[in-house]
Design a protein that fits this description.
alpha+beta; Actin-binding Protein, T-fimbrin, domain 1; Dbl Homology Domain, Chain A; 7-stranded antiparallel sheet; 21 helices; 26 strands
Length: 810
């Protein structure tokens, strides 16, 4: 067995890689393993599996895929622990960049396996070295980011969940024979759970205050008390009051006013944002004090015995508030499900929306604090950086590139950090330190793609241009591979889109990215602007606040400007019965040149993508359409596409040869020499051929049903089994031959419907339109964000923007 496959199997045995990871798929390559390891996360988890607590996972970045800086920092943490805790010599280890750039992957694997099994297998490292050569070029072309990869990484977010469940456990009343859990009974159970858990939670908060905080005030200074207990006192006051109103509503008003309680307390509960973002530091400070001071450790044990007979420590209890605030929407969701009165149901849905918004807001505060940590790491690594990097927005991507300018014609090796508003150009010094060379503020520049030098496929020949507002002088940015250029170009376009979004001047507004100091709601949707910096947009004229996706729906600006109305939206109207044809992409397009002002956002195209036209005119150079491959809408130059034909000219033998290696359900439509059409499909390991007859402008495969076009017929049988017409062919037309097959099945956790529009802020996120049906791929690891798929595109989206299993609530 090759060295890399041996390593992959051991990683699975050590519960570092999941059993169904792509390295186990047929056709897997060594670059699949390299991609899994190169961010350092799984290596650190490996050390913890070998020696518990060897690495504090809070000290590493768990999702650093777009940041070379953070990946290398994780790898260096791994190497440092190997020396400190596993007593390996530096000469026995690889260099951090050897793994990240996979320059000597055989060496990396040799030392990796040595650490894994502690066996001397170096004799294998000298064989089959050729499969490891060239990985440095291949690795940048591996763009899939596999969330299942991190399934076995310790999940700090779930810390305290079992403690919460134990504390909140309610005493179930025995059912009588007449009680058979009717709809009314289930609703009563939901109300009882809301009331009882609120009572128990309020008691828990008061216990923390009475049995821990007050006694410790005699041992610790005020600053230490605040750093450990944060704003627990404020939370106690809020929940005492809230509990009283919950009890009154349920016991005296039959819970008809319960929705109003949650609406009234939504803004006050935003205090949880501060608590949840600081509780990690609080527990860390508590651990430090407990380990360094014997009197504190003994006092904590004494307090725990008085509070709960020693069952839960203060550290345990501090994790409970974070769990509680994220449970309200789940409790209300169950109550909505079992409420039948239409008015009450609508009212509770309003409260459910409010608590979902609250949960998402709390999660975004936590998420932004993680981003601030990243920015702080960047800031400290740039020795002469005096300006705060947080002023430039959220980080997008960082890494090595070459740059030349109109002033300095020669290419220079540089390291760049791209943010929403600027790109920070640095010179790499030693280790993790950089010297600032230049800050390029993106507002003054536009992007232009350049492909003239790419035909030779040489390293560092892939570039795009940053041009000033006059389209002349600027910068040439060079990248090692085509895929790296594509990643950077996408992130530049996303940064430009965040800074100057579509609809930023809608209704005479002038919206700009803005940091809100106070909690603010969007004027269009009334939901919170979430996070702690650059939460949304504000009009410079009327100060109106809005989400990026809501800019086109806000009311008209209250202060009209002199040049209002200069920009008009270009619309091409088509009569309803007219259906535009599908097109196939013949040339790539990444948004440069951009569509004319007023048209809308560009639509990225990759060769072979299928485009469903929505607006087009033979006299126009720009068309609008939906990319069926990526699931996105936008404008593109019409010369980049050609008419799409799903029909191939071939005979039975040629069709069989093409389909035999594919999975069942793969099909193609072919045209025979006589001009007749047929469907060839693989089913039960055999190739079946179905004749298509055409007469009087109609297409059919039997006498029962006719279609006006081939595409209409294919779309019908993609949704309906052929069994109705051919008893021994029980399958739909599943996968067009031109569509690449998935190498492994993607697990799904159900579907959800988008309740609001959502505009992605970076490449990892998934844009949604109201009404979209999203396949849920993962619900964990992203603090209120789920991973899903819509129109073939995969990414993250806020969980409170969708409604799961929505049919239950209709």
């Amino acid at each position: 067995m090759e060295l890399w496959r041996q390593c992959a199997m051991w990683l699975i045995d050590c519960r570092v890689l999941p059993e169904n990871h792509r390295v186990t798929w047929e056709g897997a390559q060594v670059c699949d393993l390299a991609q899994a390891l190169r961010d350092g996360v799984l290596l650190c988890q490996l050390l913890n599996n070998l020696l518990p607590q060897a690495v504090n996972l809070r000290e590493i970045n768990l999702r650093p895929q777009m940041s070379q800086f953070l990946c290398l920092k994780n790898i260096r943490t791994f190497l440092g622990v190997c020396q400190e805790r596993f007593h390996l010599r530096k000469s026995e280890l690889f260099e951090a960049f050897d793994l990240f750039d996979v320059r000597d992957f055989a060496k990396v694997l040799t030392h990796h396996i040595y650490l894994l099994i502690c066996l001397s297998i170096r004799k294998y490292a000298m064989t089959n070295d050729e499969i490891y050569s060239g990985l440095s070029d291949q690795i940048d072309d591996t763009v899939d980011e596999d969330d299942d990869l991190y399934d076995f990484v310790e999940d700090e977010e779930n810390e305290g969940d079992e403690i919460y469940e134990d504390l909140m456990r309610t005493d179930e009343q025995p059912e009588t024979v007449s009680q058979q859990k009717t709809g009314v009974d289930k609703r009563e159970c939901c109300l009882q759970e809301i009331r009882q858990t609120e009572e128990k939670y309020t008691d828990t908060l008061q216990s923390i205050l009475q049995h821990f905080m007050k006694p410790l005030e005699r041992f610790l200074v005020a600053e230490e008390i605040e750093s450990i207990f944060i704003n627990i006192e404020d939370l106690v006051h809020i929940h005492r009051s809230m509990l009283g109103e919950v009890q009154t509503s349920i016991q005296q008003y039959g819970a008809k006013t319960l929705y109003q309680v949650f609406l009234n307390y939504k803004e006050r509960l935003l205090l949880y944002g501060r608590y949840c973002s600081q509780v990690e530091a609080a527990t860390k400070h508590l651990d430090k004090l407990s380990n360094s001071r014997e009197d504190i450790r003994m006092k904590l044990e004494e307090c725990s015995k008085r509070a709960n007979s020693g069952r839960f420590s203060l550290r345990d209890l501090l994790m409970v508030p974070m769990q509680r605030v994220l449970k309200y929407h789940l409790l209300l969701q169950e109550l909505v499900k079992h409420t039948t009165d239409p008015t009450e149901k609508d009212n509770l849905r309003t409260a459910l929306d409010a608590m979902r918004d609250l949960a998402q807001s709390v999660n975004e505060v936590k998420r932004d604090n993680e981003i601030i940590k990243q920015i702080t790491d960047f800031q400290l690594s740039i020795v002469n950086m005096t300006q705060s990097l947080a002023l430039y927005g959220r980080p997008k991507i960082d890494g090595e590139l070459k740059i030349c300018s109109s002033e300095k014609k020669s290419k220079q090796d540089r390291y760049a950090f791209l943010f929403d508003k600027a790109v920070i150009i640095c010179k790499k010094k030693s280790g993790e330190t950089f010297e600032l060379k230049e800050v390029i503020e993106l507002q003054r520049y536009q992007i232009r793609d350049e492909t003239t030098g790419e035909k030779d496929h040489k390293k560092w020949s892939y570039l795009f241009l940053l041009l000033d507002c006059y389209g002349s002088c600027g910068y040439d940015l060079f990248f090692k591979t085509r895929e790296m250029k594509k990643k950077w170009l996408e992130q530049f376009e996303m940064a430009m889109s965040n800074m100057c979004p579509e609809n930023s001047t809608a209704n005479n507004h002038d919206f700009q990215m803005h940091c809100y100091e106070e909690t603010t709601s969007c004027k269009a949707c009334s939901m919170l602007l979430r996070g702690i910096f650059f939460q949304g947009y504000r009009c410079t004229r009327c100060k109106m606040a809005a989400h990026k996706e809501c800019l086109g729906r806000v009311p008209a600006c209250g202060r009209n400007s002199d040049n209002s109305g200069n920009t008009k939206k270009v619309r091409l109207h088509l009569s309803a019965p007219f259906r535009l044809p599908k097109m196939e992409v013949s040339q790539e397009y990444y948004g440069l040149p951009p569509p004319p002002v007023g048209f809308g956002q560009p639509l990225q195209l990759s060769k072979g993508d299928i485009i469903e036209l929505t607006r087009a005119n033979v006299d126009m150079h720009w068309w609008e359409g939906r990319n069926l491959t990526a699931g996105q809408m936008g404008w593109f130059p019409c010369q980049k596409v050609k008419p799409y034909s799903s029909v191939r000219n071939m005979d039975r033998t040629a069709a069989k040869n093409l389909l035999m290696s594919r999975s069942d359900g793969t099909f193609l439509v072919r045209q025979k020499d006589g001009g007749e059409f047929a469907i060839s499909i693989k089913f039960n390991m055999d190739i079946r051929h179905i004749k298509i007859t055409a007469s009087e402008g109609l297409y059919r495969i039997n006498d029962k049903k006719a279609f006006k076009g081939l595409i209409e017929m294919i779309q019908f049988y993609q949704q309906n089994s052929l069994k109705e017409y051919f008893k021994d062919v029980d399958t739909t037309l599943q996968t067009p031959y031109k569509q690449p097959e998935q190498r492994g099945s993607i697990r799904s956790f159900g579907v959800a419907r988008a309740r609001y529009d959502f505009s992605a802020r970076d490449r990892s996120e998934l844009s949604l339109r109201e009404g979209d049906t999203i396949k849920i791929l993962s619900k964990k690891g992203h603090s209120g964000w789920w991973k899903g798929e819509v129109y073939g595109r995969v990414g993250l989206f806020p969980a409170n923007y969708v409604e799961e299993d929505y049919s239950d609530y209709c």
